[in-house]
Design goal:
The chain is built from eight helices and no strands. By secondary structure, it is an all-alpha fold. α2 crosses α3.
């Protein structure tokens, strides 16, 4: 049985990686934060009596399910909103996308930095993150679980709800796609 301190330590150890992985998956920072927080609450409410060693796989499975639930809700919501949009006149000046505006502001921070090395590393990291985000969903999920979360093949298969062979295939394809995309951008290993 885990103590509150052990549960808090576990959450501290996974929160950043879980957020980043979820943000890659849903491509919405605010939604990713909500999903990770919901997954943490579910683990704390339903499984706090489990041994600490079981938290990792349990949390990853809860997070994967919460992410899939988010996609299902988005599909329903988008269908309803599209139907409602048919009744509204087209906007004259186009739409304002606040996330796009924030990305532009964050990009300006890189230009202000004095150290060229830091700026170059950020550009490479941004390119890698962009290419990871462009991977197909299952490849991205397998890649992030294996190499970001450092789960083994069996744990990744359990989280994804597929066979170990599928995990290996998804990871192999993801690594190959990333290598090719980064090479096209001039980023060598």
């Amino acid at each position: 049985m885990a103590t509150e301190a052990e549960l808090a330590d576990f959450f501290r150890s996974v929160e950043k990686r879980a957020y980043k992985r979820t943000a890659y998956t849903v491509r919405d920072d605010h939604a990713a934060l909500d999903i990770v927080q919901d997954a943490m609450l579910r683990l704390a409410e339903r499984y706090a009596d489990r041994p600490v060693a079981e938290f990792g796989p349990l949390f990853q499975r809860i997070l994967a399910n919460a992410t899939m639930d988010w996609f299902r809700r988005q599909r329903v919501r988008d269908g309803v909103l599209r139907s409602l949009d048919d009744f509204e006149p087209a906007a004259e000046g186009g739409e304002f996308d606040p996330l796009e505006h924030l990305e532009l502001l964050q990009g300006a921070d890189v230009a202000v930095e004095a150290a060229e090395g830091t700026a170059a590393r950020r550009e490479v990291l941004a390119a890698i993150e962009e290419e990871v985000a462009n991977l197909p969903l299952r490849q991205r999920e397998a890649f992030l679980l294996r190499y970001w979360e450092e789960l083994d093949v069996a744990e990744t298969a359990a989280v994804m709800g597929c066979t170990e062979g599928s995990v290996k295939t998804h990871c192999s394809r993801a690594v190959r796609s990333l290598a090719e995309a980064l090479k096209r951008r001039g980023i060598a290993p």
